[in-house]
Amino acid sequence: MFIQYTICVLIILLFWMTKNEKRKRNFILPLSFLIITVFFAIRYNYGLDYWSYYKYYETGRTVEEVGGEIRGTGETWFYHFMNFFPRFSDFIIAHTIFVFSSLYYVTRKWMSSQYYPLFFFLILTMSVLCFNWISALRSTMAASVLWIAFDLFYIEKKRWLPYMGMVVAASFFHTSALIFLILPLLDILILKVQPIVLFAIVVVGLLSTMFFTEEIYEMFLSRNEFLGETYEEHLGSVQGYSIFGLIHNSILLFPSFYVITRKNLFSGPNSRIYVLAVFVIIVRSFRLDFHGRMSAYLFIYVIFALAQVLPKLKRQDKILCMVPLLIWCFYGIYLFYMTMLLNEHTVYSEGNYLHYHTIFEPSIMP
Protein backbone atom coordinates (compact mmCIF):
# COMPACT_ATOMS: atom_id res chain seq x y z
CA MET A 1 0.00 0.00 0.00
CA PHE A 2 2.98 2.28 0.60
CA ILE A 3 3.85 1.98 -3.10
CA GLN A 4 0.31 2.94 -4.04
CA TYR A 5 0.37 6.09 -1.93
CA THR A 6 3.82 6.97 -3.26
CA ILE A 7 2.42 6.76 -6.78
CA CYS A 8 -0.49 8.95 -5.67
CA VAL A 9 1.89 11.65 -4.37
CA LEU A 10 4.02 11.43 -7.53
CA ILE A 11 0.99 11.92 -9.80
CA ILE A 12 -0.27 14.89 -7.76
CA LEU A 13 3.19 16.50 -7.90
CA LEU A 14 3.29 16.04 -11.68
CA PHE A 15 0.02 17.91 -12.03
CA TRP A 16 1.02 20.67 -9.62
CA MET A 17 4.36 21.21 -11.37
CA THR A 18 2.68 21.47 -14.77
CA LYS A 19 1.12 24.91 -15.27
CA ASN A 20 -0.08 24.47 -18.83
CA GLU A 21 -3.66 23.12 -18.78
CA LYS A 22 -3.36 21.63 -22.25
CA ARG A 23 -0.23 19.74 -21.25
CA LYS A 24 -2.00 18.41 -18.15
CA ARG A 25 -4.82 17.09 -20.30
CA ASN A 26 -2.82 15.70 -23.21
CA PHE A 27 0.32 14.44 -21.48
CA ILE A 28 0.18 14.23 -17.66
CA LEU A 29 -3.30 12.68 -17.52
CA PRO A 30 -2.55 9.77 -19.91
CA LEU A 31 0.84 9.29 -18.23
CA SER A 32 -0.85 9.08 -14.83
CA PHE A 33 -3.35 6.51 -16.07
CA LEU A 34 -0.51 4.54 -17.64
CA ILE A 35 1.30 4.45 -14.30
CA ILE A 36 -1.68 3.19 -12.29
CA THR A 37 -2.62 0.74 -15.05
CA VAL A 38 0.83 -0.84 -14.91
CA PHE A 39 0.71 -0.84 -11.10
CA PHE A 40 -2.56 -2.80 -10.96
CA ALA A 41 -1.95 -4.90 -14.09
CA ILE A 42 1.18 -6.60 -12.76
CA ARG A 43 -0.15 -7.13 -9.25
CA TYR A 44 0.04 -10.57 -7.72
CA ASN A 45 -2.07 -11.55 -4.71
CA TYR A 46 -3.19 -8.00 -4.04
CA GLY A 47 -6.83 -7.38 -3.21
CA LEU A 48 -9.58 -9.14 -1.31
CA ASP A 49 -10.96 -11.19 -4.22
CA TYR A 50 -7.75 -12.05 -6.07
CA TRP A 51 -7.57 -15.69 -5.03
CA SER A 52 -11.30 -16.34 -5.23
CA TYR A 53 -11.20 -15.61 -8.97
CA TYR A 54 -7.99 -17.56 -9.42
CA LYS A 55 -9.67 -20.65 -7.94
CA TYR A 56 -12.41 -20.45 -10.56
CA TYR A 57 -9.76 -20.05 -13.24
CA GLU A 58 -7.61 -22.89 -11.92
CA THR A 59 -10.45 -25.42 -11.65
CA GLY A 60 -12.02 -24.54 -14.99
CA ARG A 61 -14.89 -22.86 -13.18
CA THR A 62 -16.12 -26.11 -11.60
CA VAL A 63 -18.31 -24.60 -8.93
CA GLU A 64 -18.59 -27.78 -6.88
CA GLU A 65 -14.82 -27.98 -6.56
CA VAL A 66 -14.54 -24.36 -5.49
CA GLY A 67 -17.42 -24.57 -3.06
CA GLY A 68 -19.33 -21.60 -4.36
CA GLU A 69 -22.52 -20.90 -6.24
CA ILE A 70 -22.84 -19.49 -9.75
CA ARG A 71 -25.44 -16.73 -9.81
CA GLY A 72 -26.77 -16.44 -13.32
CA THR A 73 -25.69 -17.15 -16.88
CA GLY A 74 -23.62 -14.00 -17.10
CA GLU A 75 -21.34 -15.06 -14.27
CA THR A 76 -20.82 -18.42 -15.95
CA TRP A 77 -19.85 -16.68 -19.19
CA PHE A 78 -17.40 -14.51 -17.28
CA TYR A 79 -15.52 -17.52 -15.93
CA HIS A 80 -15.45 -19.06 -19.40
CA PHE A 81 -14.03 -15.80 -20.71
CA MET A 82 -11.25 -15.93 -18.09
CA ASN A 83 -10.26 -19.34 -19.39
CA PHE A 84 -9.46 -17.96 -22.84
CA PHE A 85 -6.23 -16.59 -21.37
CA PRO A 86 -3.26 -18.99 -21.06
CA ARG A 87 -2.37 -17.60 -17.62
CA PHE A 88 -4.43 -15.93 -14.92
CA SER A 89 -1.98 -13.03 -14.85
CA ASP A 90 -2.69 -12.44 -18.56
CA PHE A 91 -6.36 -12.05 -17.76
CA ILE A 92 -5.57 -9.63 -14.92
CA ILE A 93 -3.51 -7.49 -17.30
CA ALA A 94 -6.21 -7.44 -20.00
CA HIS A 95 -8.92 -6.71 -17.42
CA THR A 96 -6.96 -3.82 -15.88
CA ILE A 97 -6.25 -2.26 -19.27
CA PHE A 98 -9.95 -2.36 -20.18
CA VAL A 99 -11.09 -0.89 -16.85
CA PHE A 100 -8.62 1.98 -16.74
CA SER A 101 -8.99 2.75 -20.44
CA SER A 102 -12.72 3.22 -19.86
CA LEU A 103 -12.06 5.34 -16.79
CA TYR A 104 -9.51 7.45 -18.66
CA TYR A 105 -11.99 8.07 -21.46
CA VAL A 106 -14.76 9.41 -19.23
CA THR A 107 -12.39 11.32 -16.96
CA ARG A 108 -10.73 13.15 -19.84
CA LYS A 109 -14.10 14.01 -21.31
CA TRP A 110 -16.05 15.07 -18.22
CA MET A 111 -13.57 16.53 -15.76
CA SER A 112 -11.76 19.85 -15.69
CA SER A 113 -7.97 19.50 -15.75
CA GLN A 114 -7.54 21.64 -12.63
CA TYR A 115 -9.19 18.90 -10.57
CA TYR A 116 -7.19 15.95 -11.88
CA PRO A 117 -5.05 15.88 -8.68
CA LEU A 118 -8.23 15.65 -6.58
CA PHE A 119 -9.51 12.82 -8.77
CA PHE A 120 -6.35 10.73 -8.42
CA PHE A 121 -6.07 11.42 -4.71
CA LEU A 122 -9.61 10.19 -4.10
CA ILE A 123 -9.48 7.06 -6.25
CA LEU A 124 -6.08 6.03 -4.89
CA THR A 125 -6.77 6.71 -1.20
CA MET A 126 -10.37 5.55 -0.84
CA SER A 127 -9.69 1.94 0.07
CA VAL A 128 -13.11 0.76 -1.09
CA LEU A 129 -12.20 2.04 -4.57
CA CYS A 130 -8.53 1.27 -4.96
CA PHE A 131 -8.01 -1.84 -2.84
CA ASN A 132 -11.33 -3.68 -2.72
CA TRP A 133 -12.80 -2.77 -6.09
CA ILE A 134 -9.83 -3.43 -8.35
CA SER A 135 -9.85 -7.07 -7.27
CA ALA A 136 -13.64 -7.38 -7.68
CA LEU A 137 -13.15 -8.33 -11.31
CA ARG A 138 -16.77 -8.84 -12.32
CA SER A 139 -17.91 -5.63 -10.68
CA THR A 140 -15.23 -3.51 -12.32
CA MET A 141 -16.07 -4.98 -15.74
CA ALA A 142 -19.72 -4.09 -15.13
CA ALA A 143 -18.75 -0.59 -14.02
CA SER A 144 -16.69 -0.05 -17.16
CA VAL A 145 -19.65 -0.97 -19.36
CA LEU A 146 -21.82 1.44 -17.35
CA TRP A 147 -19.30 4.28 -17.70
CA ILE A 148 -19.42 3.85 -21.47
CA ALA A 149 -23.22 3.54 -21.46
CA PHE A 150 -23.59 6.80 -19.54
CA ASP A 151 -21.27 8.60 -21.92
CA LEU A 152 -22.71 7.30 -25.18
CA PHE A 153 -26.42 7.14 -24.41
CA TYR A 154 -27.23 9.26 -21.37
CA ILE A 155 -25.11 12.30 -20.51
CA GLU A 156 -25.18 14.12 -23.86
CA LYS A 157 -28.24 12.56 -25.42
CA LYS A 158 -30.81 10.37 -23.74
CA ARG A 159 -31.21 7.25 -25.87
CA TRP A 160 -32.92 4.93 -23.46
CA LEU A 161 -33.16 1.76 -25.57
CA PRO A 162 -29.43 1.29 -26.26
CA TYR A 163 -28.70 2.56 -22.74
CA MET A 164 -30.85 -0.19 -21.21
CA GLY A 165 -29.24 -2.73 -23.52
CA MET A 166 -25.81 -1.83 -22.16
CA VAL A 167 -27.10 -1.94 -18.57
CA VAL A 168 -28.33 -5.48 -19.20
CA ALA A 169 -24.94 -6.29 -20.76
CA ALA A 170 -23.24 -4.92 -17.63
CA SER A 171 -25.51 -7.10 -15.48
CA PHE A 172 -24.03 -10.19 -17.14
CA PHE A 173 -20.81 -9.28 -15.36
CA HIS A 174 -22.57 -8.29 -12.12
CA THR A 175 -26.31 -8.32 -11.49
CA SER A 176 -26.16 -5.29 -9.19
CA ALA A 177 -25.84 -3.18 -12.37
CA LEU A 178 -29.57 -3.74 -12.94
CA ILE A 179 -30.35 -1.02 -10.41
CA PHE A 180 -29.46 1.50 -13.12
CA LEU A 181 -32.47 0.41 -15.17
CA ILE A 182 -34.53 2.77 -13.01
CA LEU A 183 -32.41 5.76 -14.01
CA PRO A 184 -34.91 6.96 -16.68
CA LEU A 185 -37.49 7.46 -13.91
CA LEU A 186 -35.01 9.02 -11.51
CA ASP A 187 -33.75 11.37 -14.20
CA ILE A 188 -37.10 13.18 -14.18
CA LEU A 189 -37.60 13.02 -10.41
CA ILE A 190 -34.13 14.18 -9.38
CA LEU A 191 -34.26 17.20 -11.67
CA LYS A 192 -37.75 18.19 -10.47
CA VAL A 193 -37.48 17.58 -6.73
CA GLN A 194 -36.09 20.41 -4.64
CA PRO A 195 -32.41 19.84 -3.73
CA ILE A 196 -33.03 20.24 0.00
CA VAL A 197 -35.64 17.45 -0.21
CA LEU A 198 -33.11 15.19 -1.93
CA PHE A 199 -30.57 15.89 0.79
CA ALA A 200 -33.21 15.13 3.44
CA ILE A 201 -33.74 11.75 1.75
CA VAL A 202 -30.01 11.07 2.02
CA VAL A 203 -30.04 11.91 5.74
CA VAL A 204 -33.09 9.69 6.30
CA GLY A 205 -31.33 6.89 4.43
CA LEU A 206 -28.25 7.17 6.59
CA LEU A 207 -30.25 7.19 9.83
CA SER A 208 -32.62 4.40 8.81
CA THR A 209 -29.80 2.03 7.89
CA MET A 210 -28.43 2.36 11.38
CA PHE A 211 -31.43 0.45 12.74
CA PHE A 212 -33.24 -1.14 9.79
CA THR A 213 -30.55 -2.23 7.31
CA GLU A 214 -31.77 -5.81 6.95
CA GLU A 215 -35.40 -4.73 6.62
CA ILE A 216 -34.48 -2.27 3.85
CA TYR A 217 -32.56 -4.97 2.02
CA GLU A 218 -35.47 -7.41 2.31
CA MET A 219 -37.96 -4.82 1.07
CA PHE A 220 -35.74 -3.94 -1.89
CA LEU A 221 -34.97 -7.55 -2.85
CA SER A 222 -38.60 -8.63 -2.54
CA ARG A 223 -39.44 -6.34 -5.49
CA ASN A 224 -37.44 -8.51 -7.87
CA GLU A 225 -37.37 -12.30 -7.69
CA PHE A 226 -34.07 -12.61 -9.55
CA LEU A 227 -32.25 -10.07 -7.39
CA GLY A 228 -33.82 -11.60 -4.30
CA GLU A 229 -32.42 -15.04 -5.11
CA THR A 230 -29.06 -13.61 -6.11
CA TYR A 231 -28.42 -11.50 -3.02
CA GLU A 232 -30.39 -13.39 -0.39
CA GLU A 233 -27.11 -14.72 1.00
CA HIS A 234 -26.07 -11.16 1.94
CA LEU A 235 -29.00 -10.67 4.30
CA GLY A 236 -27.37 -12.64 7.07
CA SER A 237 -24.21 -10.51 6.98
CA VAL A 238 -25.90 -7.12 6.71
CA GLN A 239 -25.86 -5.13 9.90
CA GLY A 240 -26.70 -1.58 10.82
CA TYR A 241 -24.12 1.05 11.62
CA SER A 242 -22.69 1.38 15.07
CA ILE A 243 -22.63 4.89 16.51
CA PHE A 244 -19.00 5.17 15.45
CA GLY A 245 -19.83 3.84 11.98
CA LEU A 246 -22.63 6.36 11.67
CA ILE A 247 -20.29 9.22 12.57
CA HIS A 248 -17.69 7.96 10.09
CA ASN A 249 -20.17 7.72 7.23
CA SER A 250 -21.85 11.00 8.17
CA ILE A 251 -18.67 12.83 7.22
CA LEU A 252 -19.61 12.32 3.57
CA LEU A 253 -22.78 14.32 4.16
CA PHE A 254 -20.74 17.52 3.84
CA PRO A 255 -19.58 17.11 0.21
CA SER A 256 -22.94 15.47 -0.57
CA PHE A 257 -24.75 18.56 0.68
CA TYR A 258 -22.81 20.89 -1.60
CA VAL A 259 -23.26 18.65 -4.63
CA ILE A 260 -27.00 18.18 -4.11
CA THR A 261 -27.90 21.74 -3.18
CA ARG A 262 -25.94 23.36 -6.02
CA LYS A 263 -28.15 22.03 -8.81
CA ASN A 264 -28.19 25.48 -10.42
CA LEU A 265 -24.50 25.08 -11.29
CA PHE A 266 -25.27 22.19 -13.64
CA SER A 267 -26.70 22.83 -17.08
CA GLY A 268 -26.88 21.04 -20.42
CA PRO A 269 -25.08 17.67 -20.42
CA ASN A 270 -23.66 18.48 -16.97
CA SER A 271 -27.17 18.15 -15.53
CA ARG A 272 -26.82 14.43 -16.21
CA ILE A 273 -23.62 14.41 -14.16
CA TYR A 274 -25.69 15.92 -11.35
CA VAL A 275 -28.33 13.20 -11.66
CA LEU A 276 -25.72 10.43 -11.60
CA ALA A 277 -23.95 11.97 -8.59
CA VAL A 278 -27.18 12.35 -6.61
CA PHE A 279 -28.30 8.85 -7.54
CA VAL A 280 -25.03 7.33 -6.29
CA ILE A 281 -25.19 9.37 -3.07
CA ILE A 282 -28.76 8.18 -2.38
CA VAL A 283 -27.94 4.54 -3.14
CA ARG A 284 -24.96 4.67 -0.80
CA SER A 285 -26.96 6.32 1.98
CA PHE A 286 -29.54 3.49 1.94
CA ARG A 287 -26.76 0.89 1.55
CA LEU A 288 -28.45 -0.55 -1.51
CA ASP A 289 -25.05 -1.08 -3.10
CA PHE A 290 -24.67 -4.62 -1.70
CA HIS A 291 -21.46 -4.23 0.26
CA GLY A 292 -20.17 -1.33 -1.82
CA ARG A 293 -20.54 -2.92 -5.20
CA MET A 294 -21.77 -0.65 -8.00
CA SER A 295 -22.02 2.62 -6.07
CA ALA A 296 -18.32 2.63 -5.20
CA TYR A 297 -17.30 2.51 -8.84
CA LEU A 298 -19.81 5.14 -9.86
CA PHE A 299 -18.53 7.44 -7.10
CA ILE A 300 -16.38 8.98 -9.85
CA TYR A 301 -19.48 10.92 -10.91
CA VAL A 302 -19.62 12.47 -7.43
CA ILE A 303 -16.01 13.55 -8.01
CA PHE A 304 -16.98 14.97 -11.43
CA ALA A 305 -19.82 16.87 -9.77
CA LEU A 306 -17.50 18.23 -7.09
CA ALA A 307 -15.24 19.55 -9.85
CA GLN A 308 -18.24 21.48 -11.17
CA VAL A 309 -19.25 22.82 -7.77
CA LEU A 310 -15.94 23.72 -6.09
CA PRO A 311 -14.93 26.65 -8.36
CA LYS A 312 -18.23 28.38 -7.59
CA LEU A 313 -18.10 28.03 -3.80
CA LYS A 314 -16.93 30.66 -1.36
CA ARG A 315 -13.77 29.89 0.57
CA GLN A 316 -15.60 28.88 3.75
CA ASP A 317 -17.91 26.56 1.84
CA LYS A 318 -14.96 24.99 0.04
CA ILE A 319 -13.42 24.19 3.40
CA LEU A 320 -16.66 22.69 4.73
CA CYS A 321 -17.01 20.66 1.54
CA MET A 322 -13.49 19.31 1.16
CA VAL A 323 -11.99 19.02 4.66
CA PRO A 324 -14.48 16.34 5.84
CA LEU A 325 -13.88 14.38 2.61
CA LEU A 326 -10.11 14.54 3.09
CA ILE A 327 -10.47 13.50 6.74
CA TRP A 328 -12.57 10.54 5.58
CA CYS A 329 -9.85 9.51 3.11
CA PHE A 330 -6.94 9.90 5.54
CA TYR A 331 -8.84 7.99 8.19
CA GLY A 332 -9.34 5.20 5.64
CA ILE A 333 -5.56 5.10 5.11
CA TYR A 334 -5.05 4.89 8.86
CA LEU A 335 -7.51 2.00 9.16
CA PHE A 336 -5.85 0.14 6.33
CA TYR A 337 -2.42 0.39 7.92
CA MET A 338 -3.85 -0.67 11.26
CA THR A 339 -5.32 -3.71 9.51
CA MET A 340 -1.92 -4.47 7.98
CA LEU A 341 -0.30 -4.22 11.40
CA LEU A 342 -2.87 -6.49 13.05
CA ASN A 343 -2.71 -9.02 10.22
CA GLU A 344 1.04 -8.95 9.59
CA HIS A 345 1.20 -12.72 9.93
CA THR A 346 -2.31 -13.51 8.73
CA VAL A 347 -2.44 -15.57 5.56
CA TYR A 348 -5.41 -15.20 3.23
CA SER A 349 -5.67 -18.35 1.14
CA GLU A 350 -2.22 -18.84 -0.46
CA GLY A 351 -0.79 -15.45 0.45
CA ASN A 352 -1.06 -12.23 2.42
CA TYR A 353 -3.45 -10.13 0.36
CA LEU A 354 -2.68 -6.93 2.29
CA HIS A 355 0.80 -6.48 0.84
CA TYR A 356 1.52 -5.56 -2.75
CA HIS A 357 3.40 -8.11 -4.85
CA THR A 358 3.98 -8.36 -8.59
CA ILE A 359 3.73 -11.17 -11.13
CA PHE A 360 7.55 -11.23 -11.18
CA GLU A 361 7.58 -12.77 -7.70
CA PRO A 362 4.81 -15.39 -7.73
CA SER A 363 5.00 -18.17 -5.16
CA ILE A 364 2.11 -20.33 -6.39
CA MET A 365 0.49 -19.19 -9.59
CA PRO A 366 2.07 -20.46 -12.85
What does this structure look like?
It is globular, with a radius of gyration of 20 Å. It has one domain (2-358). Residues 62-67 have low confidence and may be disordered. Strands 1-2 form a two-stranded antiparallel ribbon. α9 (137-155) packs antiparallel against α10, α15 (253-261) crosses α18 (300-309) and α15 packs antiparallel against α19 (315-342). It has helices at residues 2-17, 21-41, 50-58, 63-66, 73-82, 88-110, 116-125, 127-132, 137-155, 160-173, 183-192, 195-221, 225-231, 243-250, 253-261, 270-285, 294-297, 300-309, 315-342, and strands spanning 43-44, 357-358. It has 19 helices and two strands. It is mainly alpha-helical and 366 residues long.
